[in-house]
């Protein structure tokens, strides 16, 4: 009996070609994988950086608001510039933070010699780390507060910015250099709790990834009180509890 190898050889050749093609495609796909650092910054990642710029224990905007409220409630004389410094340190299972804080303020006189408003500046330099994000940064707040002698709420306006390097650790880890500039619009701050009750802000987040890809994201923040806020980017809403 004769055995024919022609069909067998054709099948073998087809299999070899198929495997070779699959190998080439797989190699091309692997070579075309974009490193995380070169991917665009997602809206969710941008919101995470903005959120971190608000949190008080991470020496964000809320910490500046608490300081200016304490100053406003305690200040009884006007016309003299005052400055102060302190060190903020936390070491818990969910947060490590170390910051040097510098404060300067100038109270202005109103009718009857009462404090009418206070021009307040605050700078920080330090680091923080959580399970979601870590940062080496500095911040600057330039704020004005009034309604000091009337009602339960202060009126606060001005700007706050934070510049530094953040490592985002949720999902895909990546490192970015960023500047988050926040412009405040008519914030109402409770004199007792030292927390924002209502108001809005707009922000511009700019920077670059460690791979050199630049980004620019703008959006708004709506403050709801009790430590809650909504960050809005491209119509997407991200709830923040500070």
Written overview of the protein:
The chain is an alpha+beta fold and 242 residues long. The chain is 21% helix and 51% strand. It has three helices and ten strands. A hairpin with a 4-residue loop joins strand 1 and strand 2 (96-109). The longest helix is centred in the N-terminal third of the chain and has 26 residues, at 6-31. Residues 1-8, 12-18 and 21-30 have low confidence and may be disordered.
Q: What's a concise summary of this model?
A:
The chain is an alpha+beta fold and 242 residues long.
Sheet with the most strands, sense and barrel status: 10 strands, antiparallel
Query: In terms of per-residue confidence, which ranges show pLDDT below 50 for 5 or more consecutive residues?
Result: 1-8, 12-18, 21-30
Distance between the termini: 85 Å
What is the β-strand count?
Answer: 10
- Beta fraction of the residues? over 45%
Helix fraction by DSSP (H/I, runs of at least 4): 10-25%
Q: Top keywords for this entry?
A:
10 strands; ten-stranded antiparallel β-sheet; alpha+beta; disordered N terminus; 3 helices; 242 residues
Secondary structure layout plus pairing:
Layout: H1 6-31, H2 43-52, H3 61-74, E1 82-91, E2 96-109, E3 115-129, E4 133-146, E5 153-168, E6 174-190, E7 196-209, E8 214-225, E9 228-233, E10 236-241
Antiparallel strand pairs: 1-2, 2-3, 3-4, 4-5, 5-6, 6-7, 7-8, 8-9, 9-10
